[in-house]
Amino acid sequence: MVQLTHTSMIAKPTWLQRYPSVRRGVAAALLSCSILVGHTSAATLACAFSLLLQCIAAALLTRHAGAFALMTALVVPVALYWPPQALVVDHCALYALSMGIMLFVFAHSLLPSRQPLIAVAASRVHGPLRADVALYTHALTIFWTLFFAAALLTPALLFWLGPQGTWRWPQSGGTFAAALTLMLLEAGVRRIVIRNFKHASLRTTVTAFCSARAAANRTTTSDA
After folding, report:
1. Of 63, 94, 102, 197, which is the most buried if we count CB atoms within 10 A?
2. pTM: predicted TM-score of the whole model, two decimal places
3. How far is the C-alpha of 98 from the C-alpha of 112, rounded, in Å?
4. Could you tell me the residue ranges of all domains in the chain?
5. Whether the Cβ atoms of residue 54 and residue 89 lie closer than 8 Å to each other
């Protein structure tokens, strides 16, 4: 009797909890498609379809099917009645969410109980770090934390203080171009500052960073 009771309390995983890598991949693909649809057309149906794809992606990421129904009921009617305004709000929300997540990941790794994110990425490639490399990776983590904080605030500052329409520049590729330029410059500066060291390629660096960020996200979720 005890065994049957214990067995009945173990809930079977739902379809949203199975195959997490596939679920996250599909959500990323749907999110990318929604951004593409939203940028290529401002038509009413295109706007509604873009937001619908984002609702499905949110349901896959949160693993709550009820969230999909609630978000759909709230945002799709808005997109049908006010498509231009809905697209502007949607773009701003996606930009703020992406920059906010990056800011949180970098800033959270700077806590005294944590290890700087870039130091974690470098140790995955090179093993235990030299003192000068550890100091450099710590400073670089601070730099990218400040960068994402500035990227998050720049559209609002341009909206209030800049010429009309300039607040859209960061969301339209300006932030990505700035980040890519700084990454290329940093790769050269790194080789000048850190001598007698086997530097990793850009591809290896990006792979290690993605792995370190995924590990940091798992750690943050487990702490919560």
Report:
1. 102
2. 0.71
3. 25
4. 13-81, 84-224
5. no
Distance, CA of 49 to CA of 57 (rounded, Å): 12
147: nearest Cα among 117, 124, 188, 125:
117
Q: Closest Cα partner for 214 from 123, 125, 117, 94?
A: 117
Alpha-carbon dihedral sign for residues 98, 102, 107, 113: positive
Show the tokens assigned to 203.
């591809």
Nearest to 168 by CA among 158, 176, 181, 177: 158
- Whole-number percent of the chain with pLDDT over 90: 21
Phi, psi of 83 (to 5 degrees): -60, -45
Length, in residues, of the chain: 224
Distance (Å, whole) CA 83 – CA 5 = 53
Across the range 206-224, mean pLDDT stands at 60
At 205 the three-state DSSP class reads: helix
Cα separation, 189 vs 138, in Å, equals: 15
Exposure of 206 in the CB half-sphere (CA atoms within 13 A): 7
Q: Rounded to whole angstroms, how far apart are CA atoms 214 and 212?
A: 5
Q: How confident is the model at residue 54 (pLDDT cuts 50, 70, 90)?
A: confident
Question: Measured between alpha carbons, how far is 203 from 17 in angstroms, rounded to an integer?
Answer: 31
Does the structure show a pLDDT above 50 at 6? no
Q: 83: pLDDT confidence band, cut at 50, 70 and 90?
A: low
Name the residue with tokens 């792995």.
Answer: 211
If we measure between CA atoms, which residue out of 220, 191, 219 comes closest to residue 205? 191
